[in-house]
Amino acid sequence: MAWVHLIVAGLLEVVWAYSMKQSEGFTRVVPTAVTFVFMAASFGLLSIAMRSLPLGTAYMVWTGIGAVGAFAVGVLMLGEAFTPMRALAAALILGGILLMKFSH
């Protein structure tokens, strides 16, 4: 169950990162509120996952899901550049996540 909590926490990290971008420096009320609600939920689930997962594993997977997810959202929803180098960087992060998962 810890892995489910961790994956959901990582996905929520993507949501709050996107809403933070949409908040325009916390000047828009709704995206700002969404940011803080999803941030609290993400941290809460991460802390639950850390009850039984090692710190390094949990934190790396959480930030990795957030980083790769934010990259995908940036490309798909915000029109950010999808270049071979950026794709390779995301693939390397994903590879690191998988290695960390299978090493546990």
Automatic annotation (TrEMBL):
Predominant place of localization: membrane
Single Gene Ontology MF annotation: transmembrane transporter activity
Swiss-Prot/TrEMBL GO biological process terms: xenobiotic detoxification by transmembrane export across the plasma membrane
Subcellular location(s) per record: Cell membrane
One Gene Ontology cellular component: plasma membrane
Membrane topology: Multi-pass membrane protein
Keyword Cell wall biogenesis/degradation recorded: no
Zinc as UniProt keyword: no
Record field: transmembrane: 33-50, 57-79, 85-102
Gene3D superfamilies in UniProt: 1.10.3730.20
Keyword terms, alphabetized: Cell membrane, Membrane, Transmembrane, Transmembrane helix, Transport
Family: Belongs to the drug/metabolite transporter (DMT) superfamily. Small multidrug resistance (SMR) (TC 2.A.7.1) family. Gdx/SugE subfamily.
Name of protein: Guanidinium exporter
Protein species of origin: Hydrocarboniphaga effusa AP103
Lineage: Bacteria, Pseudomonadati, Pseudomonadota, Gammaproteobacteria, Nevskiales
